[in-house]
Specification:
Radius of gyration: 25 Å
Low-confidence stretches: none
Strand order of the largest sheet: 5-4-17-16-15-6-7
Shape: globular
Strand content: 15-25%
Distance between the termini: 66 Å
Number of helices: 24
Bound molecules: ligand MGD, iron/sulfur cluster, molybdenum atom
Structural class: alpha/beta
Helix content: 25-40%
Length: about 700
């Protein structure tokens, strides 16, 4: 008789913000299947191929299975005790000699979904007292944070869309059909909920230089020149104000409307239209649809945020909501208030210093400096120079800017520790590799991610498979490292364990919930109806006002205006390169590490507007050299009508090697590594983000 029994676990996926409920079947410690959890009352309709293949990542033969220490140009297995001993000793020496700022830290995207690891990493770094902290926000949503910080005086404010009540959607540089609703706000099954509304008559306005998957359903599609869409939004604002469509909230004071009016009137509409290369009629049409709709919201995402005008574009797009009273209103965007208010919590407790960075003098955003500064902070001599670096769940050489320089900087470090599931390109430069637990091996309650649900809902994850015996949870690595250095974590307020961190954050109020009950609820718990108006209440309590025209932003946009000529100069043969995402990958990982994913066309092909290609003597399938100021890469030409003229599109996430930690050889490398084109000095000065979308490039057919 077969004694093997299947173990079925209901948990959630931890790859992206949706945290979709999944049902995992395991046999003998290995995943048999991963399916959507249809009994999950909140996410039951949502699921994607990334979760379906997650088991392959956990079982990958290339996975790091124990700590590895660099010896020469190879890595050899070591024990956790050896790792803690060596790292703590070297760290002590560096801190005693150079002070705490000699230690740097970077938390990558997957770390944001790993509650215990991120909490303990951050607590350890905070206890050291360094200012050299970096996170993926500076290659992601910094522009949004800077914008809401200045407008609402709340740096961590998440404004979740109320999709089901919305009559007008304006997406600017977002492709939710592929990316899901993943930008500080959890709207499970959000894209299909949007499409339901569109079928019922709602408007769907998509602003994107590439007619991406989402644009297929648009009722109005607008294709601006990349990084110039601020001019499109400013044009919309001009029309809204000229035609008297504005209605401001009376819940909190609104400041500087006169400055905004003057700014909006400064440039004629046809001039703004020429700069963003969108017909005047489309700007007027978009403004009227948006302004006149019963309800609606504007939502900008990574498209503009990863370009040099990200902050002003995010500011102006948010103003569309402010000017039409769509904030904290049904069908608009609202501040969630359960099971704790993350923005308010951060506002009250965050003691992070606003001290400008050492080399470039840029302020931190959400407590972190920009990774576009990281290489300089390592390479530039002087007090406060980074000599030791911890990277957890990030592959900066793949996903960040300044590739070649960053690699050189990593090699300059005295101590470089990477915590990851794999040995990727970044990890290949480390002195120590510390293995990670896969999310299917973790049980935890991620309070922060549950605090951006569009309804009051909580779900803890539960391990579906055991952690390999040779791997310890990452948080214990930081705990033990802290202990070895006599550092007290969390100010010694509680026994160091992720569950105690969760407990300390939860504000369960009168919902009758307990931490234990939440953990026991295998499909999660819906606890009551959502409510709105919390943003206004908090702002009134605090005595703050909405600032529609923050000084820095106005100065910056005036500079942009002054720098432009009447006829936009787009030198012949010069293009702006933008990015795209794929269904089967999460940024720079997943495909390479899950056995069944084979590279798709996006790995090798650069999409070029068909007419542009002809003008450059480039035919479909030709090898093309793409050259920026800092590097050149090659890809195959894919002629396309979905991309507007002057723009080329290359997916990010490909090209970085994956190493076999045992033998050291490359076991997977495919496609074009487009971020090597991105300079770490050509940045949005307000957000510190480099130009991943908008990098100027030239194209040439390889002979
Ligand atoms: N050109 C271009 N570049 C971009 C973007 C773009 O749109 N275009 N998008 C940007 C955005 S939005 C983001 S968020 C960043 C992401 O950039 P990063 O935060 O650097 O993330 P990745 O490069 O995806 O690397 C993730 C690493 O985490 C590891 N990992 C996965 N799961 C775990 C885990 O559970 N524990 C640990 N310890 N490690 C794990 C993976 O093996 C991988 O090495 O990329 C940015 N880069
Ligand atoms: N399948 C999958 N899902 C993901 C991810 C993934 O890698 N794969 N990554 C996750 C992460 S970390 C994040 S942050 C989110 C991001 O989610 P989104 O922000 O929706 O990211 P994208 O899907 O890259 O869509 C950005 C769009 O902006 C357009 N664009 C580029 N430049 C400009 C510009 O200058 N102006 C305008 N208006 N548009 C521009 C691009 O053509 C693209 O269609 O997705 C998350 N979801
Ligand atoms: S990766 Fe897919 S299944 Fe996982 S949470 Fe995101 S959308 Fe859901
Ligand atoms: Mo992201």
């Amino acid at each position: 008789m077969d004694m093997t029994t299947d173990i079925v676990t209901h948990t959630h996926c931890s790859i992206c913000e949706q945290l979709c409920g999944i049902t995992v079947t395991a046999r003998d410690g290995a995943i048999v299947s991963i399916r959507p959890d249809k009994a999950n009352p909140y996410t039951w309709r949502d699921f994607c191929v990334k979760a379906q293949r997650a088991g392959e990542v956990a079982a990958s033969p290339a996975r790091l299975m124990q700590p590895m220490r660099r010896v020469g140009d190879r890595f050899v297995p070591a024990s956790y005790e050896e790792a803690i001993e060596d790292i703590s000793t070297r760290l002590r020496t560096i801190v005693e000699r150079d002070g705490p700022d000699a230690v740097g830290s970077y938390l990558g995207n997957p770390a944001g979904f790993n509650f215990g690891s991120a909490a303990f990493h951050s607590a350890f770094i905070a206890a050291l007292g360094t200012h050299q902290t970096y996170a993926m926000n500076s290659i992601d949503n910094n522009a949004y944070h800077v914008a809401v910080d200045k407008i609402f005086d709340l740096e961590w404010l998440a404004l979740v869309p109320d999709v089901d009540e919305s009559d007008c959607f304006l997406f600017l540089g977002a492709n939710p059909a592929v990316s899901k609703f993943n930008w500080l706000g959890k709207v499970p099954n959000g894209w299909r909920r949007v499409l339901d509304r569109v079928r019922q008559g709602a408007d769907l306005i998509i602003v994107d230089p590439r007619r991406a998957e989402s644009a297929e359903h648009a009722t109005l599609y607008i294709s601006p020149y990349p990084e110039e869409d601020w001019a499109f939004v400013l044009g919309m604002i001009q029309v809204i104000l000229d035609e008297g469509m504005e209605r401001l909230t009376d819940r909190v004071p609104v400041r500087h409307m006169e400055v905004l009016r003057a700014l909006a009137a400064q440039v004629p509409l046809d001039q703004l239209a020429a700069w963003c290369d969108v017909p005047v009629e489309q700007i007027v049409d978009a403004a009227r649809r948006f302004g006149r709709a019963r309800t609606g919201f504007a939502f900008a995402a990574t498209g503009p945020a990863l370009g040099r005008n990200g902050t002003i574009t995010h500011w102006l797009t948010m103003l569309l909501n402010v000017l039409t009273d769509r904030i904290d209103a049904p069908g608009g965007r609202f501040m969630p208030n359960w099971p704790m208010n993350f923005a308010v919590y951060k506002d009250r407790t965050s003691s992070t210093s606003k001290r400008p960075s050492r080399v470039r003098g840029l302020p931190p955003v959400v407590g972190n400096h920009s990774v576009s500064e990281l290489a300089d902070e390592i390479l530039t001599p002087g007090e406060g120079r980074i000599r030791a670096l911890f990277i957890d769940g990030g592959n900066l050489l793949q996903s960040g800017p300044g590739g070649h320089k960053m690699a050189q900087a990593f090699d300059d470090l005295e101590l470089f520790v990477c915590v990851d599931l794999f040995q990727r390109e970044t990890q290949n430069h480390a002195h120590w590799l510390i293995p990670g637990q896969h999310f299917l091996e973790r049980s935890e309650l991620h309070v922060g991610l549950n605090a951006t649900n569009d309804r009051p809902y909580l779900q803890a994850s539960r391990a579906a498979i055991p952690t390999p015996e040779t791997i310890r949870p990452e948080w214990t690595f930081y705990r033990d490292l802290a202990a070895a250095m006599d550092i007290k974590l969390f100010g010694g307020r509680f026994e160091p364990h992720p569950d105690n961190v969760s407990r300390s954050l939860l504000e369960l109020g009168d919902h009758g919930l307990t931490f234990e009950a939440i953990c026991e609820a295998e499909h999660g718990l819906l606890f009551g109806e959502r409510s709105m108006g919390h943003l206004w209440t908090y702002m009134r309590e605090k005595g703050s006002a909405i600032d529609v025209a923050p000084q820095d932003f106005v100065t910056r946009i005036r500079e942009e205006i002054a720098a432009r000529t009447e006829t936009p100069q787009r030198p012949k043969g010069s293009y702006r390169i933008i990015s795209r995402r794929r269904n089967g990958m999460m940024n720079g990982w997943l495909a390479e590490t899950s056995g069944s994913v084979t590279p798709d066309k996006t790995a090798d092909y650069v999409e070029i507007n068909a007419a542009d290609a002809v003008a450059n003597d480039i035919a479909d399938g030709d090898t093309v050299i793409i050259r920026s100021d800092v590097a050149s890469v090659t890809a195959l030409a894919q002629l396309s009508d979905a991309v507007r003229s002057g723009v080329v599109v290359l997916a990010h996430g490909w090209g970085s090697p994956l190493f076999d930690p045992a033998g050291g050889e490359i076991v997977f490398q495919h496609g074009t590594q487009r971020n090597k084109l991105v300079s770490d000095t050509d940045i949005d000065p307000l957000s510190g983000v480099a130009r991943f979308n908008g990098t100027p490039v030239t194209l040439a057919r390889a002979s």
